[in-house]
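--- STAGE predict ---
source: upstream dedup step, 1 unique chain passed
mode: sequence only
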Amino acid sequence: MNKLIAVLLITLCSSFNAFAADSKPLEEYAYYGFEPEIVTNYISNRKKLGYVRLSVELMVKKPEQLVSLERHDPLLRAAIVEILGNQTEDKVKSLTGKEEIRRQCYEKVNQLLEQETGEPLVVNLLFTKYLYD
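--- STAGE serialize ---
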């Protein structure tokens, strides 16, 4: 009985390997993170000044594209800071608002990269840390 199970497992594993060899190779994504983290103020309803602190990662299809992101880091960082600075407290603190801000940043970053490099390089923009007060 144990031999039968072993033979079935070996057969199953070899069929998975054959299937994997026939499928097309996975794309090689790379990530660019802004260092240091982005910290900026937002429009607050209170007397106390509100701020948001976040880590942003940009996902690209090819590792070679990281050079372009590094070259344009100050431009992209400034655009993200500007978007965050124009947000209201309610939007910064809500989940739907956070997603809308992320989408705005993604679109602006790709727009700027298209102007500078001729193509939108970023596949996705991720907030890996998102803290506010």
